[in-house]
């Protein structure tokens, strides 16, 4: 039997409330940007009642710090539409969620320099003009009287603003300060089809927001005279009803159109509308008052292109295929995704379209007057296309050094484009040839290429022919740094690294002021933002000035000084996969008194109970040299309780190149599980962890991994697992994500069968806890329900924790605290950590730990400890 020894300690330990309250020392500046004249650095930063827009005056001494650009009340009472947009964007903050400056293009240097903020359905404007007083600088330009404004955007010249009201697109002129009150300030309606059920105009559809990282549905032309907008028709997408079972109203529900894998997708088209705003009061009340006959609909795909035409059996009427049901008739259809939209510098529309299989992407140039398309370039992949935002278009007057063939006026223009054609995301210089009507690759990979990933273009110096960009390097795959390189075709030098300190750097570059804003952290340094002077001649950063809070004045550290000293940086180690094909990066969190060095091994303890903290899916890297990895309070808390916590980036994870990520192609839940098991076996062999006491937890794809690991791994690999909001069968997830990696259920039935957790339930070994929010509109509770049915049929035990009023990511503090409590107790009772320290300050109270061992008898004292533990668990 197990006997219990309670070890009381004065050492502080993290509580469930601490974990649920977020990451200490990670007060991140968001949306770092510069004003059009380059004189202000702006960013979102927390204040007492939510995030506000802060600024640094770059004409003043940088050491004077930051100030609030303007104060605004908390954003309360969000509409369901706005709540779901924020859910898609993973914006779980109060206060201001976004802001936008007018264009930085030098063509608009004589126009008003303005910034807008959406707040509670209203639009607030800040006028960057030193001649105005405070009350004139900040004003409400749209009060929401015609309906809540969704996703507002300024015209590049700063004179107009457009937004969506009730699924249709509107625009209005921004009156100048002091302009007569008779000026038209009521928005003009530009579209009408949003009034139809299942149709939106000017909004990104669910798939675009959730899976394509496209949150916009309309884009102003560079000269502010036109808007290209998306019309999304979701009537072919199955409806999915979600009941709010935790509400007092038994009829409370919401309905979403959800594109299940292999089913119908939204039909997205693009149109261009001339924005001619009236001088008289517009009529926005009736559909008939809006003339849409002049809208130009764009030609997006070639009906003869074999990759954009599919012969499929797509049942668009039902959300779930009935087993044994006869297949729907085969139909030849055009099926594509509108991935990115914008404008080229010559006034044509830029569109990126990809086929449904996501193996082909076309970069288009479309005439806004005729709608005719030209394919600038086409990318193809045997695995899949990873979408990105890395596209820079040069000014039309730009010419390459020593090259007069693309002088201004002949229709040519230059741009920088990112591609994974080498196996890693790299930069390439292109010229659009107006005669050939195609893009011509002039040079690349920029910076010499190599086994590294470029993640962003931060600035382009057209005078010096240099491009500033960020990414990782072959020697620092788990870090992010800023680099600079020449994009000239004759350039031979490789890239130069600008950020030197090891860790994670996210930079914003102001070439006019020669200033770089660097948001930096590492596993040893909490997040902070500093300004550097940029030496463009020697390509170096000098004279850093700290702008945001540092470790010494972080509010949470100041309130609880013990926080900082109890956040212990994990140990990083690189191991080999079981098949000896790749390196796997691991982060190891150690209990007090346990010492582990990858070279010398373990000292100070016998093998410990261990928990694998997993995500495991594409587009995520968890083992990174940044502060959130160190300040993962769940991992730190479990380590304090006597567990070794291990994170391992298996094949399929991000920032390692397409071959590493593509290893799971059409066979999810296989190689990922094998790599996690390789990490378990490695640390068992090293003597760090006890092979009989290993657990796992994860959320979303990590929840899928947890459930799959206890079902698909060799018996005894995991004693228990917690699966939060898990996908359990990929036929129940959405089209764009699932089909990118798995194909469709119709063309990959074996892959879908093998990748379903339910297939492997008969071989399940270990205890399983399932956690899910009942109003999760992303990974529906149906996934967990289907798994439960299979568990019951196989007579496999499980534990279930439900949150009736939570979506995919829990928001309420009490719910997050409860998750931590219940998960902690589950692991303690099943894995028996060697040492668990208690402290009087713990929110849990009572007994919180024990030392395991076998005895032949039970004394009265041990009975009392057992009783205390039972009452707690």
In words, what does this structure look like?
With 873 residues, the protein is of the alpha+beta class. The protein has a domain at 7-18 and 565-872: 3-Layer(aba) Sandwich (Rossmann fold), CATH 3.40.50. It is built from 16 helices and 49 strands. Strand 45 (689-699), helix 11 (701-712) and strand 46 (720-724) form a beta-alpha-beta unit. The longest helix is centred in the C-terminal third of the chain and has 19 residues, at 813-831. Mean pLDDT is 86; it is low at 1-9, 312-331 and 836-873. Keywords: Hydrolase, Protease. GO terms for molecular function: dipeptidyl-peptidase activity; serine-type endopeptidase activity.
Give a brief outline of the structure.
It holds the Pfam family DPPIV_N. The protein has 16 helices and 49 strands. With 873 residues, it is α+β, with helices and mostly antiparallel strands.
Task: Write out key terms for the chains shown.
alpha+beta; eight-stranded mixed β-sheet; five-stranded antiparallel β-sheet; 16% helix; globular; disordered N terminus; disordered C terminus
User: What class would the helix/strand composition place it in?
Assistant: alpha+beta
Spatial separation of the terminal alpha carbons: 18 Å
Work out the helicity level. 10-25%
Per the CATH scheme, the topology name of the domain at 7-18 and 565-872 is: Rossmann fold
Query: What is the architecture of the domain at 7-18 and 565-872 at the second tier of CATH?
Result: 3-Layer(aba) Sandwich
Stretches where pLDDT falls below 50 for ≥5 residues? 1-9, 312-331, 836-873
Largest pleated sheet: 8 strands, mixed
Q: Any idea what the CATH superfamily of the domain at 7-18 and 565-872 is called?
A: Alpha/Beta hydrolase fold, catalytic domain
The count of β-strands is: 49
In what range is the share of β-strand residues? Answer: 25-35%
CATH classification, class level of the domain at 7-18 and 565-872:
Alpha Beta
Mean of residue pLDDT values: 86
The gross shape turns out to be: globular
Radius of gyration: 28 Å
GO molecular function: dipeptidyl-peptidase activity; serine-type endopeptidase activity
Domain Peptidase S9 prolyl oligopeptidase catalytic: 632-831
Domain Dipeptidylpeptidase IV N-terminal: 123-299, 329-526
Pfam family, one: DPPIV_N
């Amino acid at each position: 039997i197990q006997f219990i020894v309670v070890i009381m300690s004065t050492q502080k330990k993290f509580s469930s409330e601490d974990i649920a309250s977020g990451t200490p020392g990670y007060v991140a500046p968001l949306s770092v940007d510069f004003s059009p004249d380059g004189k202000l650095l702006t960013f979102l930063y927390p204040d007492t009642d939510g995030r506000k827009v802060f600024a640094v005056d770059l004409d003043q001494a940088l050491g004077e710090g930051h100030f609030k650009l303007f104060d605004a009340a908390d954003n309360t009472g969000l509409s369901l539409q706005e709540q779901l947009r924020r859910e898609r964007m993973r914006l779980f903050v109060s206060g201001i969620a976004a802001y936008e400056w007018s264009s930085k293009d030098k063509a608009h240097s004589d126009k008003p320099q303005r910034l807008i903020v959406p707040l509670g359905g209203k639009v607030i404007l800040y006028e960057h003009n030193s001649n105005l007083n405070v009350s004139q600088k900040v004003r409400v330009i749209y009060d929401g009287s015609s309906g809540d404004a969704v996703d507002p955007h300024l015209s590049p010249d700063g004179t107009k603003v457009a937004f969506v009201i009730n699924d249709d697109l509107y625009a209005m002129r921004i009156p100048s300060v002091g302009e007569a009150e008779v000026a038209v300030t009521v928005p003009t309606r530009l579209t009408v089809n949003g009034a139809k059920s299942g149709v939106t105009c000017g909004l990104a559809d669910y798939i675009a927001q959730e899976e394509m990282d496209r949150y916009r549905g309309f884009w102003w032309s560079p000269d502010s005279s036109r808007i290209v907008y998306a019309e999304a028709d979701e009537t072919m997408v199955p409806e999915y009803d979600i009941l709010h079972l935790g509400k007092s109203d038994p009829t409370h529900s919401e309905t979403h159109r959800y594109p299940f894998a292999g089913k119908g997708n939204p039909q997205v088209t693009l149109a261009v509308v001339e924005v001619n705003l009236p001088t008289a009061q517009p009529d926005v009340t009736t559909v008939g008052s809006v003339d849409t006959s002049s809208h130009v609909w764009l030609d997006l795909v070639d009906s003869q292109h074999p990759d954009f035409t599919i012969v499929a059996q797509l049942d668009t009427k039902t959300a779930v295929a009935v087993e044994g049901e006869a297949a729907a008739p085969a139909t030849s259809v055009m099926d594509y995704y509108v991935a990115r939209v914008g404008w080229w510098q010559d006034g044509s529309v830029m569109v990126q379209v990809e086929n449904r299989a996501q193996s082909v992407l076309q970069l288009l140039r479309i005439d806004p007057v005729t709608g005719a398309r030209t394919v600038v370039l086409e990318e193809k992949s045997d695995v899949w296309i990873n979408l990105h935002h890395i596209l820079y278009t040069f000014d039309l007057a730009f010419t390459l050094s020593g090259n007069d063939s693309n002088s201004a006026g002949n229709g040519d223009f230059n741009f920088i484009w990112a591609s994974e054609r080498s196996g890693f995301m790299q930069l390439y210089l292109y010229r659009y040839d107006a005669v050939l009507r195609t893009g011509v690759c002039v040079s690349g990979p920029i910076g010499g290429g190599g086994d590294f990933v470029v993640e962003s273009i931060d600035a382009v110096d057209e005078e010096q022919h240099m491009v500033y960009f960020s990414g990782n390097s072959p020697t620092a795959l788990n870090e992010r740094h800023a680099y600079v390189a020449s994009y000239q075709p004759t350039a031979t030098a490789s890239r130069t690294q600008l950020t030197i300190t090891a860790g994670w750097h996210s930079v914003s570059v102001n070439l006019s002021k020669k200033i770089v804003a660097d948001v930096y952290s590492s596993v040893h340094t909490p997040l902070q933002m500093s300004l550097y002077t940029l030496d463009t001649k020697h390509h170096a950063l000098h004279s850093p000035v700290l702008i945001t809070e540092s470790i010494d004045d972080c509010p949470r550290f100041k309130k609880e000084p013990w926080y900082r000293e109890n956040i212990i940086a994990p140990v990083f180690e690189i191991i080999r996969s079981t098949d000896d094909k790749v390196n796997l990066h691991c982060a190891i969190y150690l209990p007090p008194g346990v010492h582990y060095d990858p070279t010398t091994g373990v000292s100070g303890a016998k093998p410990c109970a261990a928990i694998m903290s997993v995500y495991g899916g594409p587009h995520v890297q968890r083992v990174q040299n940044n502060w959130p990895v160190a300040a993962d309070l769940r991992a730190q808390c479990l380590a304090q309780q006597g567990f070794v916590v291990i994170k391992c980036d298996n094949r399929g994870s991000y920032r390692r190149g397409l071959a590493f990520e593509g290893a799971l192609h059409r066979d999810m839940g296989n190689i990922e599980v094998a790599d996690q098991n390789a990490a378990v076996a490695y640390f068992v062999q090293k003597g760090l962890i006890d092979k009989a006491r290993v657990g796992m937890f994860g959320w979303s794809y990590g929840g899928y991994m947890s459930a799959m690991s206890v079902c698909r791994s060799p018996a005894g690999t995991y004693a228990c697992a917690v699966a939060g909001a898990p996908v359990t069968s990929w036929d129940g997830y959405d089209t764009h994500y699932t089909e990118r990696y798995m194909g469709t259920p119709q063309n990959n039935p074996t892959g879908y069968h093998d990748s379903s957790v339910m297939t492997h339930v008969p071989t399940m070994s270990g205890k399983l806890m399932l956690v899910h929010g009942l109003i999760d509109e992303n990974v529906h509770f149906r996934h967990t329900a289907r798994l439960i049915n299979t568990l019951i049929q196989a007579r496999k035990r499980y534990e279930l924790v439900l949150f009736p009023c939570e979506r995919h990511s829990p928001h309420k503090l009490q719910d997050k605290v409860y998750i931590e409590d219940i998960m902690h107790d589950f692991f303690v009772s099943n894995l028996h950590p060697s040492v668990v320290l208690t402290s009087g300050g713990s929110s849990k109270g009572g007994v919180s730990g024990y030392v395991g061992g076998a005895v032949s008898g039970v004394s009265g004292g041990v009975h009392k400890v057992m009783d205390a533990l039972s009452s707690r668990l």
